[in-house]
Amino acid sequence: DLYIVKTHPCRNTVRDREITTLYLLLFPIFTTYLYIMSTVLLHKENGVGYITFNRPEKYNSFNGDMLLTLQKHLEDCGNDDAVRCIYITGAGKGFCAGQDLAAATDPNGLELATIVREHYNPTISLLRNIEKPIIAAVNGVAAGAGANVALACDIVLANESASFIQAFSKIGLIPDSAGTFFLPRLVGMQRAAALLLTADKVSAAEAMAMGMIYKRFPDDVFEAESKKMAQTLAQMPTKGIGLTKRLLNHSYQNDLAQQLEMEIDMQVQAGASEDFKEGVTAFLEKRKPVFKGR
Description:
Blueprint: H1 2-7, H2 9-37, E1 40-45, E2 48-53, H3 64-79, E3 85-90, H4 101-104, H5 112-129, E4 134-138, E5 141-143, H6 145-151, E6 155-159, E7 163-165, H7 179-187, H8 189-198, E8 201-203, H9 204-209, E9 215-217, H10 219-234, H11 238-251, H12 256-271, H13 274-284
């Protein structure tokens, strides 16, 4: 080889070109394979960060890799000014069947406390603290932690085939992922207690009727309608929406006087935004506003 390099540099150049050509051919295939094999996919388009749980053969049940990847994608979307709405759904026939019990019961795996503290709790915190609208597009069963991750989102949409199950009591566990926090606030203490204790299955129609979710759509138009809402939110004044989300978060702990005072502070910030100026200008000029999310 050394002899060839020294005396026949043209041969080495030809070989380098062949290697480069092979690399250029295989690299897109390899990266596409890695993307497809990822347990959580992220695709950004027209201001929306589309996050897809990607373990359809397991009904997208959570394991550690999946939740840590979800956290990474949420942080990515939260820090990317070009992303103004986040849309979360599941691949295949289900949204998420909750925790993968094989991973949770692995004798060589993590303890339950570590799984909840490092995998679930940071995920819920990100969903609430990212000051951008987050849609859960529930396209099938949402059970256990899968249901509670959905309920932690700002807007929950579901197809007619969707169902929600607080499955924890069936295996002797307590509801985690903030299920005991959000569910009573959505449906009331009496109904939440019954659903958490009995693990009764709730259809999309029932979930909408009791205020657990915002809307349901027929299966054949669900994807289009839910993505349409995400695209609409991505064109709205993101700064004001983020401040509204902050107010909603604090309303859980504030009394009326504190909430009113906080509304003043948030209104001042919203009033100083570029989007507010554009909204007023567009109203006076009788045209559709073009918000930039600033």
